[in-house]
């Protein structure tokens, strides 16, 4: 078992584009569907697997390209330490003063290490100076508890 780290910072408006944050349905729209529906399906099929946009379900990061994996660790504490580094780097830009609190951030890191130790995933999101959003995820791999059928992107 190992853990992959993912980070995305971008416009909140793009993050809110939920159709591109979920994998396409396995079956295309039936023949005779509205052209807009067919076009939308094609867009999602083309964009979801190549986009760095955070998926709606944390485990679906494993469906993304290898290039979006920021790092990989064998030990949960190492992965949580990376999370702590990212939180410290971005905290000055957090939209909420309470989220910048160092005790709060330390609790998030400790909780992440514990969750990863049990084979779980971690996903955190923060509003930054408007209109930006920060998404951080640590995903357990080989296998993933929530989606054991998903292959590891770096093997």
Give short descriptive properties of this protein:
four-stranded antiparallel beta sheet, alpha+beta, 155 residues, flat, single chain, 4 helices
Annotate the secondary structure layout.
Layout: E1 2-11, H1 12-15, H2 35-47, E2 71-73, H3 76-90, H4 102-117, E3 122-127, E4 132-141
Helix pairs in contact: 3-4
Can you walk through the features of this model?
This protein is α+β, with helices and mostly antiparallel strands and 155 residues long. 31% of the residues lie in helices and 19% in strands. It contains four helices and four strands, in the order βααβααββ. A four-stranded antiparallel β-sheet has the order 2-1-4-3. α3 (76-90) packs antiparallel against α4. The model has no long low-confidence stretch (mean pLDDT 94).
The coarse overall form would be flat
Order of helices and strands: EHHEHHEE
Unreliable segments of 5+ consecutive residues: none
- Strand numbers in spatial order across the main sheet: 2-1-4-3
Helix proportion: 25-40%
Arithmetic mean of pLDDT: 94
Our measurement of the CA-to-CA distance between the termini, rounded to an integer number of angstroms, reads: 12 Å
Number of helical elements: 4
- Write down the Rg: 17 Å
Strand content: 15-25%
- Major beta sheet summary: 4 strands, antiparallel
């Amino acid at each position: 078992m190992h853990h992959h780290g993912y980070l995305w910072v971008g416009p909140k408006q793009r993050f809110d584009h939920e159709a591109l944050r979920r994998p396409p349905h396995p079956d295309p729209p039936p023949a005779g569907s509205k052209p807009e529906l067919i076009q939308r399906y094609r867009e999602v099929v083309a964009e979801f697997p190549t986009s760095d946009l955070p998926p709606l379900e944390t485990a679906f990061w494993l469906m993304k390209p290898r290039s979006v994996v920021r790092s990989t660790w064998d030990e949960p504490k190492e992965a949580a330490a990376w999370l702590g580094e990212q939180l410290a780097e971005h905290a000055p830009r957090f939209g909420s003063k309470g989220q910048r609190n160092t005790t709060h951030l330390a609790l998030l890191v400790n909780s992440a290490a514990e969750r990863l130790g049990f084979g779980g995933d971690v996903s955190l999101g923060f509003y930054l100076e408007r209109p930006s959003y920060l998404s951080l995820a640590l995903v357990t791999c080989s296998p993933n508890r929530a989606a054991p059928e998903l292959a590891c992107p770096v093997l």
